[in-house]
Amino acid sequence: MAKPKVAVVIIHWNKRELLAQFLPSVMASTYPNLEIVVADNASSDDSVDWLKHNYPQITILQLDKNYGYAGGYNKALQQLTADYFVLLNNDVEVPASWLEPVIAMMDANPLIGAAQPKLLQYTSKNHFEYAGAAGGFIDKLGYVACRGRLFETLEADQGQYNDNCEIFWASGACLFIKREAYYKAGGLDESFFAHMEEIDLCWRIQQVGYQNWFCATSHVYHLGGSTLQKGNPQKTYLNLRNSLVMLFKNLPASTLIWFIPYRSFLDLLSSIFFIMKGEYKNSWAIHRAHSNFFFQPKKWLTLRNNGLEKKPWSQLHGVYQGSFIWKHFIGKKQKFSEL
């Protein structure tokens, strides 16, 4: 029986050196029915010419402007016909057989809409990587963490998460997704531009009846921070704004009544914490995020009215019943396995 067709799609904008460093490992992938695609977000450097000269066998999709992560992928994927898409960052190194275990897991279970492999650090390959580690979870206050990563604390990979399991969200750094699930859930939300959009998509994937899974028998190495470094005020802004939008879009109305004010209060405490650390630009980024959210209600209401069921936390998988903030900062828990 023929293997399902897989399209590995790398979103790219400038930084041709990342393609030179990481694309060779992707090209060495052993999966038989594979198309490798670079979706270029109107790079101003020589990335496209370099690709045409060095990798004429790959598919290059040249977009007319920088649509960001979400918009770039939406524009690219609509031009492809694969059974499975793999949304891969341009700073990820992969082993030759990285695709086979995840595709086999997804193909064996028709309910799996999205999945991720184990994400390890490129610069410290025995440690989990921030962007997804061993699969993403969310708590009832809307904060996210991963097996292997609690806030800024990253664990060494000692086999403690070597089990396939259902999760809340799969990392956008290496996101496997079934084509039909992608479109049934509505694709990536382009209003996000960058950050949190894969969590929002995975939430909607559950709303339309699919599951998100972690595959422990595949791993990749992610450099991370190639676009915006951790601590960058613009990254703080996008994460906070997009988190509010995601929660507003997907939570039932009965939860939103108390949830948004409470979450805003916690974000205010975070802004005070940044001031105490002297990080004034990050503190201001939080206020910018809230202003953008609260002063555009019609825009967010339009996104919320997408026809999808707003399932309560009890009907979603990968929801932690406690508080990540409380357990980590007050309870001093450093590892996801200690929760």
Gist of the model:
The protein is α/β, with parallel strands linked by helices. It contains eleven helices and 14 strands.
Would you spell out the secondary-structure blueprint of this structure?
Elements: E1 6-12, H1 16-27, E2 34-40, H2 47-54, E3 59-62, H3 68-77, E4 84-88, E5 92-93, H4 99-108, E6 112-121, E7 136-139, E8 144-146, E9 149-150, E10 153-154, E11 165-167, E12 174-178, H5 179-184, H6 197-207, E13 211-222, H7 233-250, H8 253-276, H9 280-294, H10 297-304, E14 319-320, H11 324-330
Parallel strand pairs: 1-2, 1-4, 2-3, 6-13, 7-14
Antiparallel strand pairs: 4-12, 5-13, 6-12, 7-8, 9-10, 11-13
Structure description:
The strands form 3 sheets. Strands 1, 2, 3, 4, 5, 6, 11, 12 and 13 form a 9-stranded mixed beta sheet that branches. Strands 8-7-14 form a 3-stranded mixed beta sheet, with no helix packed on it. The radius of gyration is 19 Å and the shape is globular. The chain has 339 residues and is an alpha/beta fold. The chain starts with 5 loop residues before the first strand and ends in a 9-residue tail after the last helix. It has 2 domains: 6-222, Spore Coat Polysaccharide Biosynthesis Protein SpsA, Chain A; 233-338, no CATH class. The chain is built from 11 helices and 14 strands. Helix 2 links the parallel strand 2 and strand 3 (59-62).
